[in-house]
Structures are given as C-alpha cells and as structure tokens.
C-alpha cells in the first residue's frame, strides 16, 4: 500500500460496548478530532439497533456476519445479516474495499487493557503496532492466524484491526478506559498521517506478539450448563503466564480444576461475558518476539 | 414475628445477574447446604426466560412488577407481569405471604461489595443486619425509606431484603464474589436457625446505616442522550464520602463536572449498567449510626 486515502473508525459493532459508541458520537460532533490533512476519515456506528437495546446484537453477532457467501446470500434476512450488507456497501466490497484501514473499537469484560487485534501479519500493520507499543508500553498486540476467510467486520478491508479495551462491564462507560482508547485512536491517525507524509522511521526493536493458539471452554454438564467458574487466581490475569498445573476453574462447590496443557501459555479474553454462549472461557496464546525490520 | 417457618432464597430476578442464578443451581443440587432443622427453605429462579437470553428482563424489569394493582391487573400480559403473578402465587399474597423471609440475590456493576438492602427498619431485620456486619465487617447495610408501596419482588413478604454484590459485569460469574455471597447466605440461614432456637444474643453495638436520600442522573442533551461519564475519581468509590465540589462527571471532551450539593453524601450504585435507562448515575445516601438495642 502506498498512500492511505480513507480510514474508517467503527464503533458499536456490538451494541453494548459503549466505549466505541460514545467515542464515535464525540468524533461526529467534533470532526476535527479525527480529521487529518492527507486522508479522509469516516465514522460508522456498526449496530445502531443493538445499541438502542443495550445488547450485543439483535439476531446474530454482527461481527461474525461478514463471510462473502453470507453477504451474497439474499435469503438471510435477520437484522445483522442485512446490516452487514449495508456496511459492505459503505466500506467494501471485500478484497476491493473503499477504505484503506478499518479501526474497529471494542470493549470486553476481560482485563485486556489496551489491545490491538491483528488478523494478518503485514509489514504495514506490524509497523503500526510497533509504533503504538513504542509510545505506550501498555499496548498489547494479538494475532490470530486465519485458517479460513474471516467473518469479522474489519475483514472488509485488508488492513483492518480491532482495538479491544477492558475490563469494562457491558453497557457501561469507564471514563479512564474511554480516554485511553481515545488517545490510542489519535495515535493511530497521527501515525497514518506521518506515514503518508513519509516522515516515520521504522521501529526496529522486537515486537511482542501474542499468537492465538486455541480456546478453552468452561466445564459443562450434559445439558451444556457450565459447571465451574474462572478460578479467582486467574480472573483478570490476561496476558500473564499460565503454567501446567495452575488452577483455571473453580466448581460451584469449591473444587479447583487445573490447567492440563503441557506448556506455558498466555490466556486472553478470560471470562468475557459474550463468550459464554460461544463456548469460550478464555483464549490461549503463545508469546513470541517478532523481529520487526 | 415469633418463629420463622419458611424462608425463600430467590436468584435471577434479573436474568443477567449470574451470581444468584448459579448459587440457586448449587443449592438445588445440594439441598443440605440451605436446609436448617427449624424451618423450610425454598429456592426460586426469578426470571428464567431472561436468564436464557442473558438479559435483565424480557419486557419489563421483574423487580419493579410487584405493585398490588399490577398483580391484580388482568390486562397486563408482558412476560414479567405474568411471571410476577406466578411468583405472588408461590410466595405471596402481599401482606399475607406464605414465607417469613425472602432473600433476593442480586449483583451489580457498581463496587457495592457485600451489601444488604433493607426496605423497612424492623428490629428483626436490624438485628439480622447487625449480626451479619459483626461477623463480616465488609458487609454494608442500606436502607430506603418507602414513600409508597414497594414494587420489588422482596416486598411480597414483610421481612424481605436483597443481597447486592459487586462489582461484577452483567452475564459474568466472579468466583470470589460468588463464594462471598454463598457464605453470606449461610450466615443468614444460620442466624435464623439460632433465632428460632432462642440462642442468639442481641448485638448492641451501633449499626452503620446508609440511608437513601435521592438519585443523580447523568447530564443529558435534549434528546436524552448522556453527555458525560462517571468521573474516574468517583468510579468504584461506592460508600466513600463525596464532598461538595468533588468531581462526579467527566464530559466526553474531558471537562470535569462537580457535585453541587451542600453536604457530604455517600454515593452507592455508582455506574450501575442497568440504571442508565432508569435515569440514575448513582444513588446518594447519608451515613448514620443507629443504636441497636
């Protein structure tokens, strides 16, 4: 990619993640905050109906509604299936998107701090991630290797990524995290501006990357009901090492359940509210250093 | 009240407050945990349909559905209106309830710790509250003077109270708070058992009471949209003194808004997710010492 011409900031892809929704409102009322000389900035409220009801979605998770075949399927008529088609018209089509970068603003009940979620390891996004970690060491970078086409909203564009902040309860604003997310958005825009102007230097220090390696579900009974909770020692310990034998769950009658893996991993999205229904108690990552040159 | 014959433990009055729901499941599978020799213990899942959808309610807040006139109104047919009538059949009727005590288990995104919410200051509930604070100094006791008939589920019975724990996000289990709530329920049952057996001593040390004195809404624009967040200095500071001039809100563009009251108050339910729609950013209380003899 040479010059960046259009950037989309999306919030409220999940209607109960208020940080992104209210940041969008702020930006839309103060366009100068996100305007930069060398490119156009669009803002988009992902799921307005779900936001009205303070819910993640109405019929289906909008952020799992962007498979090409679903976007082309005229039979799908749930609210999010239709909304995905509208959004594709505004930002897409996939592979030939009208925007160069999508920044999708999310929040989580997990202690994800300020996280950048990447779907592809392209030198452009890696340099951006390295820049963001260099100016704010709190920023963590996660990477999920794609085994198939992505169904995420940000996959409409080759250089889409998510900013994921937490812990914050659903349908709540946390002012501190709001302001940190706001600063991170400005840092992204400033980086893109300087890149367009050719005045950025490559950052050559290694980048710490948390590479997605699978998920662990809650223990469940034969009816699919959970039988245990995240262990208190693991709660809010996202990005911390989890060793074989460490407790991960606690049954309702107080029995600890250990992690039975054979190597140390770094769990993220520990106890994310929206993942109970997806069969995910946490995601496991490997921590790796990436030479960035 | 002489002898206590029946006690109802209710959880999931709000379907996305998981602590109570899963405590009920534990109790129902291990009845001995809540069985005591001198009285009968019932368990009741308040809003099963809302729990299935991980929502507070389907059509209307169940915990605002217990006005006598609503219970008698055959035209009201929303899910919670009907569910309230079913629950009244099981526990009520109001004023002549089939149970002597209702313990309603709630959770909140606010930092309420372990709170007991009382609707009436009766020597019986005051002694119970004093006992609970004596064995666990973490326990706080709140009191809302009733200006009219209560529409809360626990008002079905003269000696109903809520246990309110937090902070915990909606639709999430926090193991530490789960276990603390569990212990508190056992302490209540043990107290009632010993009272029936006549082996409790009155606790004469003064009881600290947080008396409800009103609510503050978020600043809103002409469309009813909130214009500010809870100030970071106030977030999670439930039960701490708030002085005139202290910051309480922060606008989205970063301006602090001060508390304009004329006396020191003790806010609770600060930034409770479910109260955004009710026009409540926090509740204000006065702290008072009650002689308990």
From TrEMBL, chains A, B:
Keywords: Hydrolase, Metal-binding, Zinc. GO terms for cellular component: cytosol. It holds the Pfam family AstE_AspA_cat. Its cofactor is Zn(2+). Residues 206-287 form the AstE/AspA barrel-sandwich hybrid domain. Its EC number is 3.5.1.15. Residues 4-192 form the Succinylglutamate desuccinylase/Aspartoacylase catalytic domain. It catalyses: an N-acyl-L-aspartate + H2O = a carboxylate + L-aspartate. The active site is at residue 164. GO terms for molecular function: aspartoacylase activity; hydrolase activity, acting on ester bonds; zinc ion binding. Zn(2+) binds at residues 14, 17, 106. Binds 1 zinc ion per subunit. Substrate binds at residues 56, 63-64, 164, 275. NCBIfam families: PRK02259.1. Belongs to the AspA/AstE family. Aspartoacylase subfamily. This is Probable aspartoacylase. It comes from Hassallia byssoidea VB512170.
């Amino acid at each position: 990619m040479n010059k960046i011409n259009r950037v989309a900031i999306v919030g409220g892809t999940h209607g109960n993640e208020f940080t992104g929704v209210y940041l969008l409102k702020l930006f839309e009322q103060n366009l100068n905050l996100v305007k930069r000389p060398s490119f156009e900035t669009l803002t988009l409220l992902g799921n307005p109906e779900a936001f009205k009801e303070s819910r993640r979605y109405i019929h289906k998770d909008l952020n799992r509604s962007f498979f090409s075949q679903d976007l082309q399927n005229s039979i799908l008529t749930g609210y999010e299936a239709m909304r995905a088609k509208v959004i594709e018209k505004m930002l897409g089509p996939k592979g030939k998107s009208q925007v160069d970068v999508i920044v999708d603003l999310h929040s989580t009940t997990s202690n994800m701090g300020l996280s950048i979620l990447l779907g592809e390891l392209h030198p452009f996004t890696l340099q951006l991630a390295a820049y963001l970690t260099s100016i704010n060491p709190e920023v963590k970078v996660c990477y999920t290797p794609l085994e198939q086409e992505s169904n995420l909203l940000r996959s409409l564009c080759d250089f889409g990524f998510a900013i994921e902040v937490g812990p914050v309860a659903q349908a709540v604003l946390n002012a501190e995290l709001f302001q940190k997310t706001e600063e991170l958005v400005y840092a992204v825009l400033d980086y893109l501006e300087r890149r367009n102007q050719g005045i950025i230097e490559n950052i050559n220090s290694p980048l710490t990357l948390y590479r997605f390696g699978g998920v662990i579900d809650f223990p469940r009974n034969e009816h699919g009901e959970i039988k245990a909770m995240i262990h208190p020692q693991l709660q809010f310990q996202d990005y911390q090492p989890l060793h074989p034998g460490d407790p991960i769950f606690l049954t309702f009658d107080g029995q600890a359940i250990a992690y039975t893996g054979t190597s140390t991993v770094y769990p993220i999205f520990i106890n994310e509210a929206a993942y109970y229904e997806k069969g995910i108690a946490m995601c496991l990552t490997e921590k790796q250093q990436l030479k960035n040159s």
